[in-house]
Amino acid sequence: MTNVTDTLQLTVRYAGDRTAVVSVAGDVDLHTASTLREQALAVVAEGVPHLVLDLAEVDFVDSTGLSTLIRVLQATQAADGSLRLADVPDRLVRMVTMTGISQLMPVHTTVADALAAQHADGTPDRVGGGGATAG
Asked: Which CATH code fits 9-117?
């Protein structure tokens, strides 16, 4: 029996003025991808152009979900930002690699690795001020 849900859980945590970690839980598919797209684009519109998507709790991504990742990437790039994927479950790594998504956006083992790599790339980000650091 297939369990189809229209629910996608998203949590946004600001890791500085210009960086946010969006934790995603559930399936990113035809029924839920718009939720991810709308929330991520809203964060970018707030002036936070660097996003890390924490996919640890994602079970499934379909073609609509993949298109959403590319749309979010384009929005971050248009805002002089970046998109990184973190904690991609083993069951999704092959899909991310075979579809070429990993060539478009960096894939990191953990959120901490993604944030460290972003800072190592020279991305300025003041902690405090406009964003709250969780930890």
From this structure: 3.30.750.24
